[in-house]
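Q: My labmate handed me this sequence with no annotations at all. I'd like to see what the chain might look like in three dimensions before we decide whether it's worth expressing. Could you predict it?
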Amino acid sequence: MSSDQTTTSGAGRTTDSDTGRTTDSGAGAQDSPFRHEQTARDEAPQFVLPLVVRIERTDPPARTDALETAARAVLVILSDERSLGDGEWAQAMRDWQDARIRKVVRRARGAEWRRAEALPGITVTGSSAEVRVFPPVPLDGWPKDLARLQVSGTDLDDPEPPVDADLSAPVLWLSPDLDMSAGKAMAQAGHGAQLAWWELSDEERTAWREAGFPLAVRTPDPARWAQLTTSGLPLVRDAGFTEIAPGLTVAVDGYERVGALPKRVRRPAAWR
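A: Here is what I predict for the chain of 272 residues:
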């Protein structure tokens, strides 16, 4: 469905292609993972974060739920104890985030999905969607059972228009000017969620995780989008290698509210 490389931007931030991580401008920006130019980061081993969405022929998930579940899956693996400190995934997670960050979304059903679930990773469930996220792997070192899965060829729809986002929780706003496949949009939502994560303190991250990572993915009208992209919010800018031309794809709004989330948006932990 998608192999994604992105840029991020915001007030006082440096931008570059491939990820969603913000850095302050200044001397350190010369080695930012967001620069379009070749940097020392390109000499490091390159990794990709694999995500697999379950899409059965007779019961596909709703599009918006799949996008939100993919975003939540990125947050879940970023916060998992195995990704931190001396955890078994920690080195791969550090290497992935210190080089050029990439996310790839593939689809699976039936026996394909069962084989994917047998590999080390975390399955995150939404209302109708299931997304399994795996620790980063080398660009040319995919596990066989993931490498054989399809990247393209499937899209998803919402049976009914999504309800308005609850603005007490973070909202990942997708550009209304773009027509992206579900996989492309899932990867973009994941980039947006990662941007929000990088903006938070340890206490805020813990509070968000304990609340079940509530968030919404929505598409604003063009006037609202123009406001969002000029208000200093973290932004995801796609490098334009797949599906769409280079440009802004996601505005990350409301991440600062995760420390005081109301009970109505809290959700049980839905991952295994």
